[in-house]
């Protein structure tokens, strides 16, 4: 992609969008929108050349946001247990943002592989049935993300706005993620929930691969909206990655086998590979790098 595009990244104070905003800011004019409740995150983004605009999606507060972005990368998400609030932020406000930015060349909406109906160890394609996947951990999440996808599909047609809906599967890296939480739990000796329908497998995607492919996926936007699973090349279980992390820090993980946790969510990446190529970071080196950068003093192997 040509340099110097004007790009809006929402949710840039968060785990996934933070590295996207800072890395794109090297070659593009990047604007970040969030509430910036943590002032240090605004300072960190500004120091990397990102322009920060305070905007509360719940209030539909876009007054300070320009309308002439080339690309909008929408990562902001609310994960409270309040259905009304989360539907407002995740679904309604996404439609309002698309309306505000309808002149963009593309709109990339970050969804989740947590929209798929759990189905044992099945591999989910973009056509697989949807369901209330995350209810047991985050009651509003799957339903409000499915609602958001419906709003996005409508808005893409309504505003003739080329759109990609990416269903992200288990992002991780030096900026955090589920394996990072597990690392901290292993260190503290806390039991890690895993589903009784073992093993609990996911298709991990490292933040470097997210950063490398995000604009290609935005460029692939279409009307009607194109849906793409955004995931790695390897299906790895929580049991495997925790064993590996435990080995790195010299502590054996403890598991809590239960049916009150998430089941496997493995996604097919054929469509992603056709559009932007496969993920490149292999999970062991990605996890090792995460520990090296976040807790180098914990490493024993
Ligand atoms: N993390 C995962 O494991 C995972 C897996 C699959 C898909 N995803 C998807 O990836 C995207 C990013 O997730 P994440 O885990 O990086 O999120 P996160 O770390 O929880 O960050 C959420 C972001 O949304 C912003 N936000 C929340 N409420 C807002 C509001 N009312 N107005 C404006 N901004 C608001 C927050 O900024 P302020 O608090 O500063 O406003 C923050 O920047 C989401 O769409 C999520 O569904 C994540």
Characterization of the model:
A seven-stranded parallel β-sheet has the order 3-2-1-4-5-7-13, sandwiched between helices. A three-stranded mixed β-sheet has the order 9-8-12. The model has no long low-confidence stretch (mean pLDDT 97). The protein is built from nine helices and 16 strands. Helix 7 packs across helix 9. It folds into two domains: 6-171 and 204-230, 3-Layer(aba) Sandwich (Rossmann fold), CATH 3.40.50; 175-201 and 234-263 and 281-298. With 301 residues, the chain is an alpha/beta fold. NADP nicotinamide-adenine-dinucleotide phosphate is lined by residues 11-17, 34-37, 55-58, 75-78, 89, 110, 112, 145, 168, 170-171, 177-178. NADP nicotinamide-adenine-dinucleotide phosphate binds at residues 11-17, 34-37, 55-58, 75-78, 89, 110, 112, 145, 168, 170-171, 177-178.
CATH class of the largest domain: Alpha Beta
Look at the helices and sheets and give the structural class.
alpha/beta
Q: What is the β-strand count?
A: 16
The CATH topology assignment of the largest domain is Rossmann fold
């Amino acid at each position: 992609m040509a340099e110097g595009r004007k790009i809006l990244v929402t949710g840039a104070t968060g785990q996934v969008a933070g590295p996207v905003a800072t890395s794109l800011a090297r070659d593009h004019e990047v604007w970040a929108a969030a509430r910036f409740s943590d002032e240090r995150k605004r300072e960190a983004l500004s120091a990397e050349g990102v322009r920060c605009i305070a905007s509360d999606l719940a209030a539909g507060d876009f007054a300070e946001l320009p309308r002439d972005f080339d690309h909008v990368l929408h990562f902001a998400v609310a994960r409270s247990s309040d259905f009304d609030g989360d539907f407002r932020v995740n679904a309604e406000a996404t439609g309002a943002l698309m309306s505000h930015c309808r002149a963009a060349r593309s709109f990339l909406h970050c969804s989740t592989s947590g929209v798929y109906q759990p189905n044992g160890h099945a591999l989910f394609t973009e056509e697989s049935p949807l369901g209330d996947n995350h209810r047991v951990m985050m009651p509003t999440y799957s339903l409000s993300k499915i609602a958001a996808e419906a709003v996005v599909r409508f808005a893409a047609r309504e505003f003739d706005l080329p759109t990609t809906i990416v269903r992200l599967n288990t992002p991780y890296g030096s900026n955090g993620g589920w394996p990072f939480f597990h690392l901290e739990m292993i260190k503290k000796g806390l039991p890690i929930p895993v589903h009784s329908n073992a093993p609990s497998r996911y298709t991990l995607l490292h933040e470097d691969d997210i950063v490398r492919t995000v604009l290609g996926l935005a460029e692939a936007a279409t009307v009607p909206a194109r849906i793409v699973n955004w995931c790695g090349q390897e299906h790895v279980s929580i049991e495997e990655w925790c064993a590996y992390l435990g080995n790195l820090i010299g502590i054996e993980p403890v598991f809590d086998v239960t049916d009150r946790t998430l089941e496997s969510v493995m996604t097919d990446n054929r469509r992603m590979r056709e559009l932007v190529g496969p993920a490149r970071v292999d999970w062991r080196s990605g996890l090792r790098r995460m520990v090296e950068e976040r807790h180098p003093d914990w490493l024993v192997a």
